[in-house]
Amino acid sequence: MQDGVTDLQQTYYRQVKNPNPVFTPRKGAGTLKFCEKLMEKAVGFTSRFDFAIHVAHARSRGLRRRMPPVLRRRAIDALLQGLC
């Protein structure tokens, strides 16, 4: 009985609903060239050294305690692309 319960919990447990979020623009919506360039620059921002410096600065000021988890950083990447 216990084996079936643990298997069921492991099967249905997810940490987040979408572990690989991707920004997809609306079909037919025009985007400015400037915004397209910003969206390209935003891809992978949280995995670069710049973001690590921002987090280190926030830690030194006492605003953050640690780097955000990987899944949250992926969500931040997708949201940054959606700002334009």
UniProtKB/TrEMBL annotation:
Protein name: Replication initiation protein
Species of the source: Escherichia coli DORA_A_5_14_21
